[in-house]
Amino acid sequence: MNFKKIKVFAASLIMLYVILFSSGCWDALDLNERSIVTTVLLDYNEDKIIFYIEMANPDKATTNGSGGGSEDKYLVVKSVGKDFVEARNNANEKMDKPVYLSAVRSIVMTERFAKLHFIEYLHRFRSDENYRKKIDTVITRDEPEELLKITKEKKQSLGFVTEDIIETLEEQGKSFKRTTMRLLENISAKYTGMLIPCMGISEEEIALVGYSVVNNNKVDGFLPVEEIEGMILLKAEKVKTNYRLHYNDMNMTVKVTQKKRTIKANYDNEQISMDVNMEYKAELLYGDKKEPYNFQEEDAKALGELLKERIKEELAEAIGRSQTEFNCDYYQFDDEFRIKYPIEFDRMDWYEEYPKIKFNYNIKVKLGTVWIMDYSNDEAK
Is residue 373 in some structural domain? Predict the structure, then answer.
C-alpha cells in the first residue's frame, strides 16, 4: 500500500470517527439521514450574505479529500439571503436531510465578507453547538466559485485541502493555523491584532497565498507569501528554513532551525521597549563552486555573523512594517506587556502606543559545518 492510499484510508477513518463520536447521542441510522458538511464558505456580494455548503456525496463510498471514480465526491449547496438568518433558512430549504456540522474541516471567508461580517459570524459560530470549536479558519481573496471549480475538477474537498495545506506547513515550521476558538479569544481581548492564513489559487492549485491582517476586529490589509520571511520567524513554531548567503565569491546554502524564541517587555520613563531574543542552530549544506572550499573556523564565524545580520534585518523589517504600514500589533506583543505590566496596560491605548515601541534584537547562531569544509586538512569535521 503506497503513501497516498494510506492517507486516503486514514482520512476515511478519521471522518468516520468524527461522525460517530463527536456528538453525545447517535444511532446507526444517522449516517444515512444527515448531510455531512465538510466546508462552509462565506461570501458577501451585492448586499447579500452567500453561503456555500460543501457536503460529502452520500452516494460515494468514501468521504475523503482524494479523487477517484466518475461521480462527484462532494456536493455544494449555495444559498443567498439579506442576513445570516435568511441565508441559513434558504440553505435548509434546499437540503433533503438535516445538516451535520461536526465534521466541518475548514471555514473559508472571502475578504469582502470578512471586512463587514467577521465579528458577527464568529459570534454566530460560538452560539451554534453543532460545530466543533477548533476548526481551521482562513480568508480568501479569490472568487468562491473559482475555488470550488478547482476542487470539483480534482474530486477534492475544499475543506480537506485547506486543512491539509495549513497543517503540513505548520508541521514544517513554515506557517501557523488559526482556529475558530483562537479567533474568538482574540476578539474578546481589549486589543485585537492578528494574522489569518489566506488561501487562494496559484498555478491552478489551491495554495496558501499570504496572510490577512485583522486590526481592531476588521480585515485591514494583506501580507503576500513572498514577503513573510521575518513574520514566520516570529509566528511559526518549529521554524526551519534555508538561507542563501554570499561569502568569498560563493553562494552558500545554510539550513537554519529556530531553537528558542522569547520576547521580554520593558517599561521605563513611560517608554515601552521589547527585547526580541532568538537562538538558532545553523548547518552549512553546500556552495555553488567547485570543491575544495578551504573553509576554516574563521570562515564559519564570519558566515555566522552574516546570518545573524540577515535574520536581524528580516525581523526588523517585519516588525517595522507592522508598526508603520499597518499600525497593527499582529505579533501580539501586547500579551507580553500586559502580563508583566497589567496596571499600566489597562491605562493605555495600545493602538497609540504600538507604533512608538522600540525593539532590541539579540540573535544567537550556532553554526556547524558539514561536508563542505576542506577535507584535506585536520580541521575538517
Answer: no
Quickly list DSSP for 116-134. HHHHHHHHHHHH-TTS-S-
Positive or negative, the CA dihedral 112, 115, 120, 122 is positive
Answer for the pair 180, 137: CB distance below 8 angstroms, yes or no: yes
Residue 372 · residue 284 · CB < 8 Å = yes
**Per-residue CA distances from 49 to 100, 111, 216, 369 (Å):** 21, 13, 22, 57
* 84 φ/ψ sector (left φ>0, alpha ψ -120 to 50, else beta): alpha
Phi, psi of 17 (to 5 degrees): -60, -45
* 67 pLDDT higher than 90: no
Write down the pLDDT at residue 11. 52
DSSP code, position 179: B
pLDDT reported for residue 299? 84
Tell me, yes or no, whether 188 and 54 share the same domain: yes
| pTM of this structure | 0.85
Q: Are 141 and 110 in contact (CB under 8 A)?
A: yes
The gap from C-alpha 318 to its chain's centroid, in whole angstroms, comes to: 17
Tens digit of pLDDT for each residue in 108-157?
A: 999 999 999 999 999 999 998 888 888 999 999 999 999 999 999 999 99
Q: How far is 41 from 159, CA to CA, in rounded Å?
A: 9
Domain range holding 295?
230-368
Q: Report CA 338 to chain centroid distance, whole Å.
A: 25
| Total of domains in the chain | 2
Helices (runs of H) and strands (runs of E) counted in the chain: 12, 13
Q: Provide CB contacts within 8 A for 66, sequence distance 6+.
A: 4, 7, 8, 11, 155, 156
